C-alpha cells in the first residue's frame, strides 16, 4: 500500500514553516559518515573510481593508489553527503518552481501511457488560470524527459452547494497528493479552502472545509470534492465545520482516504470514500475515545491488517494527550471502528504525525511505521516506531526504533513513504524524511525490508547538500512506487519546498549473486593430492561458483573475489595453508565473467605448510566478492543516461561466503571425544581444630594444586579457566616448564580469574599434568568463604555425559585469627587496715594505680576490640562504697565507667564494729577473704574500653587511679585478717564466631590488692585486756596467798621475824659483827 504523511499548514500546534522560525534552529553538529558495511563503501568507490576501503585504511599506499589522492578529498565530501546503495545520486533530475511558492511541499511520481511525470504541489503559488484568486496554490506536472514544468488547470471551485460560497484564496492547494495505484487517477487537496456563505451574510466565521480535486490519469480533467460540506452547517468548530479535509490523503484501489484533523473542535476524523460503491464513511467519536485537540487525521494510511484481502485505515493523532496515538480502523457501513491503536511515549514528540502501512516482511499482512518527528533527547532529533503485525491487527513493537543519524533538530520521521521493492530482494523498502537536518538542508534515509521486519540501520542517506547549498527542507515530501525510466525499478522523488525544488532519483539495477564454495569433507595430510613446483604436496581444492541474476543487467557481469584460507587460525599460530604464487600468503584473488542465470565456477589450490601441528581445529575458508568492471549498454530511455548496476546488499554477512573442512583423524572414542578430568586442593598455612583456613594479614601465600587428566582422545588446545573473587591475586605458576601460560581475565576492568593454556598444543591420551598456582589475598579482604571455580576445556568435542568432572569447586576459608596478650598490675600491692586514727582526714585515704596492657600479637587484626575491667565496689552485704576511680586513661580509643544499677552509699560515717565484735575478731583465728566480680556483677565497678580495629603488633595501655575507703573493709561481720581485692580484665570483642578464631581460649588478666589487718587491737580492747589482766593477776595472787596461808607459810615466817627482831636490837647498825 502507498503511505502518506500530513503535509501542509498545521492547525493549532502548527508547523508554520516560515523563514524566521526555521532559521532560528541552530546547527549544533554535522552528520558523520554512515555505511552499513565496508562492502557498501567499496561499491561506492567502484562506482566513482576511487580507492577501496582496504586501500584507504592501509598505512602504505601503493603507487597506483597515490595518483588518486587528489580525487579522494572530493569523493570523501560526497561520501559524507550520501551513503550510496542503489538510488543514483550522480544523475538527479532537478525541477524548480516559482520562488516563494513552496514548490515541492508535496511530490508525486506519475505515469500514464508512455509518459512519465513528476507532479508537484506548490501550496502558496499564484494560479495562472485564476488570476484574481490570491495565492490559491497550484499543481505542476513536470516532464521527466524535458525537466519542464507546467501548471495544471485546477484549483477553482464555483458551485459547491445550496448554502455554500467558495473562497479559493489561500486554500493551500497541493498540500497533499496521492495516486490511484493502477488506474492512475490523482488526488490533490487544499485543506484551507473555506465556505464563506454564512460569514458573508451573518458575519460568522469562515468554515475551512478543505477541498480535494480528483484528476484524470492524463491530468486533463478534474472534479472537486468537498467531503465536509453539509447544508445548514454554520458553526465553526462544531461537527465538520472546520474539518480541514485533505491535510493528508491517500488513494487505494477502491478508497479515497482524507484526513480531517479540525473536525469537532480538532478532535479530528478520517473520511473515506469508496470509489466503487460510492459510499462514504467517517470516524465518529461517539465513545469519546479520541480527546479534543487530538488532530486525528493529521496523517493517514491504509493496509491489510486483519486479513490479506481486507483493507483497514490508519489515522495519526499526534496531539492525543500530548503523547500522540495512531489508530487502525475497519470500515463498517458508513462508519469507521477502531480495531487497534498504538501510543507514543514522550510528551511533545508528535507521535502520529506520519504513519505508513507497509508489508515489511512480505507475509501478506501490513506492518506499521509511526513517526514521532519531535522526539527529543537533546532537541527534536525524531524517531520512527516499528510495529510488526502478528495477525489480526495484533501489533508487536520492535525492540529498536529507527533514528536516522540522530541529528540535532532533524525531525527525522516527518515523512514516511513506501517506495516498493527498490533493491529487488522481495521486500518493500521505505524512505524516511528528516527535512530539518543539517541546518535545514534536510535528508532522506532508505531502510530496507527484511524477513525479520526491517533493517535497523539505513542502507542509504541522501542529503539536500548533495544537490547544492540552496536546497532546503529536502525530505519534507517523498514519493515512490513508479518506474519513470522504464528499467523495471521504482524510482523516488523528493521535495525541498523551502528552496522551491523537487528531485527525482532513479534506481540503479541490482545484481543478485548466489555464491557457493565447495570443499572436501576432510583432508588426509599423509596423501599428496597436488603438485607444486614438480613436487607432491598436500592441498585443499577450493571451488567457488557464482550465479548472477536481476532485472535490466548486462549480459556478462564481472565478479572480483578474494579467497582467504585458514581464516580462523589460532592466535599466535601462522596460517596453515597458502596459495601458490603468493609466497606464504593465505589470500588469493580471482575474477570471473558470469552470465545471467548461469553457474560459473573457478578452482584454486590451497597448499598445506610443513610442520603443521594444529590438526584439530577446522580449516575455515572465506570468499569475499564484489562487482568488477562491466560495460553498460546504452538504451533508448528518452535521453537519460543508463545506470550502472550495483551489487545487492545482503542482510547479515554481506557478500561473503564461508565454508570449512577438517583434517582426517583416527580416534579411539566416538567423534574423537576427549575426556578431561580436573581435581584440585588448597594448601593453606593455618589450621584450627583440623580445619584449614587462611588467616587474614599473615602475609603468606596460598598454593592451589591442580591436576588435569585426559583419559580420552587428544585434547587440542586445552585450557583451564579459574574464576575467583577480585580480592584474590594471582602471583605465578610454579611449574614454568610445563607449557603453562596464563592471562588475567577481566570483567569491567576488574580481575575475575585466569585463563590458562595448558600443554604444548594438546594433551595426549592418558596423560596427567600437575599445576600449582600461587595466589595471594588482598590486604583489604574481609573474612568469609571464597569459591574458586576451575573449569577444563579443549577445542575437541567432548560428550556431554563426560563433562561432569571438568569442573572443580573449592572453598577458601578466610578468617580473622586473633591472639591477644593481656596483663596488669597495681601499685602498691598491699596496705594495712585497722590502724587507729584520731580524726579521719579523708574518707578514701588509700591511693592505688592500676595498669593494664593489651597487645595484639597477630596474625590478624582484631576488629572492634573492646575490653571490660571490673573492681569490687562494696563489701557484700553492705552498700557502702569501697572504691572510686578518680582518673581513667587509655593510649588508644576511649574508656568509660558503666552506670551502676545498685545504689551505693558514699559516706564517711561508716558504722563501727561493736566492742563484742572487735573482741571476738581479736580472739578469732586469722582468715582470708577474696573479693571478686562475676560476669555481670552489679556489686562491682565496671569500666569498658573501646579500641577500634587493633592492628597486629599494636599495644594499648590503660591506667586507672583508684581511691579506697579502708573503713568499709572493717565492717563486721564480713571482715577477715586478709582481704584480697581482685580486679579482672576480660575481652568483650572480638568474640569467637564463624569469621573470627581466637587462638587463646581465655583472654583475661587478674590483678590482686591485699588489705592486711593490723595486729594492734582497738583501744577498748586494749583497755579491756589490761584491766582483765590486772584482775586476773590479782585473783591469781589472792588465790596463791590464800593457799600459802592455808599451808601455814605465813606463820613460820612470823616467828622468825620475831626472833630476828629481837636479835637485831642488840647489834649496833654501823658496826660489823665478826
From TrEMBL:
Domain of life the protein comes from: Eukaryota
Domain Integrin alpha first immunoglubulin-like: 507-664
Key words of the record: Cell adhesion, Glycoprotein, Integrin, Membrane, Receptor, Repeat, Signal, Transmembrane, Transmembrane helix
GO cellular component: external side of plasma membrane; integrin complex
FG-GAP repeats: 337-396, 399-456, 460-522
InterPro entries: FG-GAP, Int_alpha_beta-p, Integrin_alpha, Integrin_alpha_C_CS, Integrin_alpha_Ig-like_1, Integrin_alpha_Ig-like_2, Integrin_alpha_Ig-like_3, Integrin_alpha_N
Entry's localization field: Membrane
SUPFAM superfamilies (UniProt xref): Integrin alpha N-terminal domain, Integrin domains
Gene3D superfamilies given in the database record: Bicelle-embedded integrin alpha(iib) transmembrane segment, Integrin alpha, N-terminal, Integrin domains. Chain A, domain 2, ntegrin, alpha v. Chain A, domain 3, ntegrin, alpha v. Chain A, domain 4
Any coiled-coil regions, as ranges: none
MF annotations from Gene Ontology: integrin binding
Any single Pfam family the record assigns to this protein: FG-GAP
Domain Integrin alpha second immunoglobulin-like intervals: 667-806
Topology versus the membrane: Single-pass type I membrane protein
TM regions (residue ranges): 1023-1045
Residues in Integrin alpha third immunoglobulin-like domain copies: 821-993
Keyword Ribonucleoprotein set for record: no
Gene Ontology terms: biological process: cell adhesion mediated by integrin; cell-cell adhesion; cell-matrix adhesion; integrin-mediated signaling pathway
Family of the protein in this entry: Belongs to the integrin alpha chain family.
PANTHER family with a match to the protein in the record: INTEGRIN ALPHA, INTEGRIN ALPHA-4
Name of the molecule in the record: Integrin alpha-4-like
Native source species: Sinocyclocheilus anshuiensis
Amino acid at each position: 500500500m502507498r503511505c502518506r504523511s500530513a503535509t501542509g499548514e498545521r492547525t493549532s500546534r502548527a508547523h508554520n514553516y516560515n523563514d524566521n522560525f526555521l532559521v532560528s534552529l541552530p546547527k549544533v553538529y554535522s552528520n558523520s559518515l554512515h555505511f552499513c558495511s565496508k562492502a557498501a563503501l567499496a561499491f561506492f568507490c567502484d562506482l566513482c573510481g576511487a580507492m577501496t576501503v582496504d586501500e584507504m585504511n592501509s598505512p602504505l599506499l601503493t603507487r597506483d593508489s597515490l595518483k588518486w589522492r587528489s580525487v579522494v578529498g572530493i569523493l570523501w565530501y560526497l561520501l559524507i553527503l550520501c551513503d550510496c546503495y542503489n538510488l543514483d545520486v550522480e544523475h538527479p533530475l532537478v525541477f524548480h518552481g516559482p520562488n516563494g511558492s513552496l514548490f515541492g511541499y508535496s511530490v508525486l511520481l506519475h505515469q500514464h501511457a508512455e509518459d512519465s511525470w513528476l507532479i508537484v504541489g506548490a501550496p502558496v503559488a499564484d494560479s495562472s488560470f485564476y488570476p484574481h484568486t490570491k495565492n490559491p496554490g497550484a499543481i505542476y506536472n513536470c516532464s521527466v524527459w524535458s525537466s519542464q514544468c507546467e501548471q495544471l488547470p485546477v484549483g477553482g471551485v464555483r458551485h459547491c452547494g445550496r448554502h455554500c460560497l467558495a473562497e479559493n484564496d489561500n486554500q493551500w492547494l497541493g498540500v497533499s497528493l496521492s495516486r490511484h495505484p493502477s488506474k492512475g487517477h490523482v488526488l490533490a487537496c487544499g485543506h484551507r479552502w473555506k465556505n464563506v456563505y454564512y460569514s458573508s451574510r451573518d458575519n460568522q466565521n469562515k468554515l475551512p472545509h478543505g477541498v480535494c480535486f480528483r484528476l484524470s490519469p492524463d491530468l486533463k480533467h478534474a472534479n472537486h470534492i468537498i467531503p465536509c460540506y453539509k447544508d445548514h452547517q454554520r458553526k465553526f468548530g462544531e461537527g465538520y465545520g472546520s474539518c480541514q479535509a485533505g491535510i493528508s490523503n491517500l488513494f487505494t484501489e477502491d478508497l479515497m482516504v482524507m484526513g480531517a484533523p479540525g473536525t469537532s473542535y480538532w478532535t479530528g476524523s478520517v473520511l473515506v470514500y469508496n470509489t466503487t460503491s460510492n459510499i462514504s464513511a467517517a470516524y465518529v467519536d461517539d465513545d469519546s475515545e479520541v480527546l479534543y485537540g487530538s488532530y486525528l487525521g493529521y496523517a493517514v494510511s491504509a493496509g491489510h491488517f486483519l486479513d490479506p484481502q481486507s483493507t483497514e485505515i490508519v489515522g495519526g493523532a499526534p496531539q492525543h494527550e500530548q503523547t500522540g496515538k495512531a489508530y487502525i480502523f475497519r470500515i463498517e457501513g458508513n462508519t469507521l471502528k477502531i480495531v487497534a491503536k498504538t501510543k507514543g511515549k514522550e510528551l511533545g514528540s508528535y507521535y502520529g504525525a506520519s504513519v505508513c502501512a507497509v508489508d515489511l516482511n512480505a507475509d501478506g499482512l501490513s506492518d506499521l511505521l509511526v513517526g514521532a518527528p519531535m522526539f527529543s533527547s537533546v532537541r527534536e532529533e525524531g524517531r520512527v516506531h516499528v510495529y510488526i503485525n502478528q495477525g489480526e491487527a495484533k501489533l508487536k513493537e520492535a525492540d529498536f526504533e529507527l533514528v536516522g543519524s540522530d541529528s540535532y533538530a532533524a525531525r527525522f520521521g516527518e515523512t514516511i513513504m513506501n517506495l516498493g521493492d527498490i533493491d529487488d530482494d522481495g521486500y518493500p523498502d521505505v524512505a524516511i524524511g528528516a527535512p530539518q537536518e543539517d541546518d535545514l538542508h534536510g535528508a532522506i534515509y532508505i531502510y530496507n525490508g527484511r524477513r525479520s521486519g526491517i533493517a535497523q540501520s539505513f542502507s542509504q542517506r541522501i542529503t539536500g547538500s548533495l544537490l547544492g547549498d540552496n536546497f532546503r527542507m529536502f525530505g519534507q515530501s517523498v514519493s515512490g512506487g513508479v518506474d519513470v525510466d522504464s528499467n523495471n525499478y521504482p524510482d523516488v522523488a523528493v521535495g525541498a519546498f523551502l528552496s522551491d525544488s523537487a528531485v527525482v532519483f532513479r534506481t540503479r539495477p541490482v545484481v543478485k549473486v548466489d555464491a557457493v564454495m565447495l570443499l572436501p569433507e576432510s583432508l588426509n595430510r599423509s596423501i599428496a593430492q597436488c603438485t607444486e613446483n614438480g613436487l607432491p604436496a598436500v592441498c585443499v581444492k577450493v571451488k567457488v561458483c557464482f550465479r548472477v541474476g536481476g532485472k535490466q543487467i548486462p549480459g556478462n557481469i564481472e565478479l572480483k573475489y578474494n579467497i582467504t584460507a585458514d581464516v580462523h587460525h589460532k592466535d599466535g599460530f601462522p596460517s596453515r595453508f597458502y596459495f601458490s604464487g603468493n609466497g606464504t600468503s593465505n589470500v588469493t584473488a580471482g575474477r570471473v565473467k558470469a552470465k545471467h542465470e548461469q553457474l560459473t565456477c573457478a578452482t584454486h589450490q590451497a597448499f598445506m605448510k610443513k610442520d603443521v601441528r594444529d590438526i584439530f581445529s577446522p580449516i575455515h575458508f572465506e570468499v569475499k566478492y564484489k562487482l568488477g568492471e562491466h560495460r553498460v549498454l546504452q538504451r533508448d530511455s528518452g535521453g537519460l543516461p543508463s545506470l550502472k548496476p550495483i551489487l545487492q546488499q545482503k542482510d547479515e554477512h554481506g557478500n561473503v561466503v564461508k565454508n570449512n573442512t577438517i583434517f582426517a583423524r583416527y580416534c579411539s572414542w566416538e567423534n574423537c571425544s576427549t575426556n578431561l578430568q580436573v581435581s584440585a586442593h588448597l594448601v593453606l598455612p593455618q589450621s584450627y581444630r583440623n580445619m584449614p583456613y587462611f588467616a587474614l594479614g599473615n602475609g603468606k601465600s596460598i598454593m592451589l594444586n591442580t591436576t588435569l587428566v585426559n583419559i580420552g582422545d587428544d585434547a587440542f588446545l586445552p585450557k583451564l579457566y579459574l574464576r575467583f573473587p577480585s580480592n584474590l591475586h594471582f602471583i605465578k605458576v610454579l611449574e614454568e616448564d610445563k607449557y603453562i601460560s596464563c592471562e588475567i581475565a577481566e570483567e569491567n576492568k576488574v580481575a575475575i580469574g585466569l585463563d590458562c593454556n595448558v600443554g604444548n598444543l594438546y594433551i595426549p591420551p592418558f596423560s596427567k599434568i600437575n599445576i600449582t598456582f600461587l595466589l595471594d589475598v588482598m590486604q583489604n579482604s574481609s573474612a568469609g568463604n571464597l569459591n574458586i571455580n576451575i573449569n577444563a576445556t579443549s577445542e575437541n568435542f567432548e560428550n556431554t555425559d563426560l563433562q561432569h568432572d571438568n569442573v572443580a569447586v573449592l572453598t577458601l576459608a578466610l578468617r580473622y585469627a586473633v591472639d591477644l596478650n593481656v596483663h596488669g598490675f597495681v601499685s602498691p600491692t598491699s596496705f594495712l587496715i585497722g590502724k587507729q586514727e584520731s580524726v579521719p582526714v579523708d574518707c578514701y585515704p588509700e591511693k592505688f594505680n592500676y595498669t593494664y596492657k593489651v597487645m595484639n600479637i597477630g596474625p590478624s587484626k582484631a576488629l572492634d576490640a573492646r575490653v571490660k575491667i571490673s573492681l569490687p565496689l562494696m563489701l557484700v552485704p553492705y552498700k557502702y562504697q569501697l572504691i572510686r576511680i578518680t582518673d581513667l586513661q587509655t593510649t588508644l580509643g576511649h574508656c568509660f565507667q558503666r552506670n551502676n544499677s545498685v545504689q551505693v552509699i558514699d559516706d564517711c560515717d561508716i558504722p563501727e564494729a561493736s566492742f563484742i565484735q572487735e573482741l571476738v575478731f581479736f580472739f578469732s583465728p586469722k582468715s582470708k577473704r577474696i573479693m571478686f566480680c562475676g560476669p555481670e556483677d552489679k556489686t562491682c565497678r565496671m569500666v569498658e574500653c573501646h579500641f577500634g580495629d587493633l592492628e597486629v603488633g599494636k599495644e594499648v595501655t590503660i591506667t586507672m587511679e583508684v581511691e579506697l575507703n579502708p573503713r568499709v573493709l572493717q565492717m563486721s561481720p564480713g571482715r577477715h585478717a586478709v582481704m584480697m581485692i581482685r580486679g579482672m580484665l576480660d575481652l568483650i570483642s572480638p568474640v569467637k564466631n564463624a569469621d573470627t578464631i581466637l587462638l587463646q581460649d581465655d583472654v583475661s588478666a587478674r590483678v590482686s590488692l591485699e588489705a592486711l589487718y593490723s595486729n594492734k587491737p582497738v583501744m577498748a580492747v586494749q583497755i579491756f585486756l589490761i584491766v582483765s589482766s590486772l584482775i586476773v593477776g590479782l585473783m591469781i595472787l589472792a588465790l596463791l596467798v590464800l593457799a600459802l596461808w592455808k599451808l601455814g607459810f605465813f606463820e613460820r615466817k612470823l616467828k622468825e621475824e620475831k626472833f630476828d627482831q629481837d636479835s637485831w636490837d642488840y647489834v649496833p647498825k654501823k658496826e660489823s659483827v665478826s
